[in-house]
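Sequence in, structure out.
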Amino acid sequence: MKKQASDMGRRQVLKTLALGSAAGAVASVSAPALAAAPKAADAPQSSNYRETEHIRNYYASLSK
């Protein structure tokens, strides 16, 4: 019975290695595509948020 328990541990290690190598391959392939994606600063600013005096006072009260 103890031999089966050690086999399960080995199988789990092999599964983990296989998944880890697959994840590494996906990450290496997608890295150039992510680098070419436009930055958030390049996106047009939304007109929904305006920092008013009231908001600045609130933010200032948080840092105290």
